[in-house]
Amino acid sequence: xxxxxxxxxxxxxxxxxxxxxxxxxxxxxxxxxxxxxxxxxxxxxxxxxxxxxxxxxxxxxxxxxxxxxxxxxxxxxxxxxxxxxxxxxxxxxxxxxxxxxxxxxxxxxxxxxxxxxxxxxxxxxxxxxxxxxxxx
Length: 136
Prior knowledge:
By secondary structure, this protein is of the alpha+beta class. It is built from two helices and seven strands.
């Protein structure tokens, strides 16, 4: 049996954590036909940079989490970002892999987004970085 890839394990664990907080959570930006309401979470881009070692998988993992809200939901978006950041920082394993959260490389950003005509959205971004220490 093949283990789940490290980046997929991280994605799955953060997706599960977001839904456990009862956040509307997507693995993509919702289409207009999906009738998504603000605020919502989009578990976004992942990256795994492997490091060659004898006998184990190591390297670095990164994942971007997007939180979207309307102009009046700044505090709600900020609270959701904080909750997910603290949850992510406390992960010691993802799937079958041991990880170490990298505080000094992770970031929290909250931006105004005007890409939708006649609206201002709040766009929270978590850039989460981990060191992959190997399998359990």
